[in-house]
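User: Could you check the structure of this?
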Amino acid sequence: MLLDYLFADEPEAPGEFSLVRVSRRAMATTFEVAIPVGSHTDPVAAAEDALDLIDELEDQMTVYRDHSEVSRVNASASKEFVEIEPQLFDLLARCAVWTKETGGAFDIATGALTKAWGFFRREPGVPAPRELVDAMRATGARHVLLDAEQHAVKFRVAGLELNLGAVGKGYALDRAADLLRTKWGVRSALLHGGGSSVYAIGGPPGDSRGWPIRLKNPKPDSEDGESLGMVRLFSAGLGTSAATFQFFEYNGQKLGHLLDPRTGWPAFGTASASVVAPTAAEADAMSTAAFVLGASGAETLTRLRPALGAIVASEDSSPTPPPSREGSSLVNDSAPPSPTKGGGGITLRSFNLAPDVYSPPDHAD
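Assistant: Sure, the predicted structure tokens are below.
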């Protein structure tokens, strides 16, 4: 089976075996749980249970519902410590570590920036200079205090808001996969959220190489069926970040919704970034960082973190970058050496992925 997971339509069922596939809308996208027929006595009930959990997690993490736990934190944590559910606290703690490891390229404390740029209400536009300055003052995980003993959160500055959009889908998939394994005994399944976040439980029946997942070209004008190659996923997560559909034009340039927390401006120079990681949450976080940092930054990440693998599609022509903050050891470089042309105006590079895990476009089939 090849799951066209980046901006995917319905994946095709494989010829060697059949899948029970159950899907549901959540987190403004479609989640799907696919379980091989015969691998479990009641795959439909198992899949629906996993999707029920994803619904519960959305209700906990969304910033679009005032009653959610994250909204409650955003409303009160600048005044006092707010106690939260232990597993959500653990996610925030992991996100804080990932922020440090990526030099601030991944950061969940960016709600003020998202609102300043208008992406929160999907009415994007360049903010006024004063508005951007104020948003930057209320941005950054360095302003978030975590009390591990009480599972509580506090903000150092007023106006700061958490937004788990860059990691929430992957986290939900990890939790759903854990439920399938521990409660239902599922040993082979593929879960995805909107195609851009994927988690594989084991591999498909009779295939120890893993679930084959084709990466679609993020360029809207790419030829139908053109891909960025194929990844085989076995007991691991895969995340992709791209700004294909959420962007606006400003002075002849396309500005996307993936913001660089270090500069306050949309990230530039990257068409898409895909990361393989032990969990889907980490894959989502690191694909966001790789998109912001570009190919050179992704190379540094995978060198420092051997458990990660990355595929970065860089724009062949990039807009002039906005001013950046100094002091980060990870850089954005959209024109690294030894490129591979991926077609459609992009240059493709992969890092830390063996040939049996990632097949480039010329070898994907």
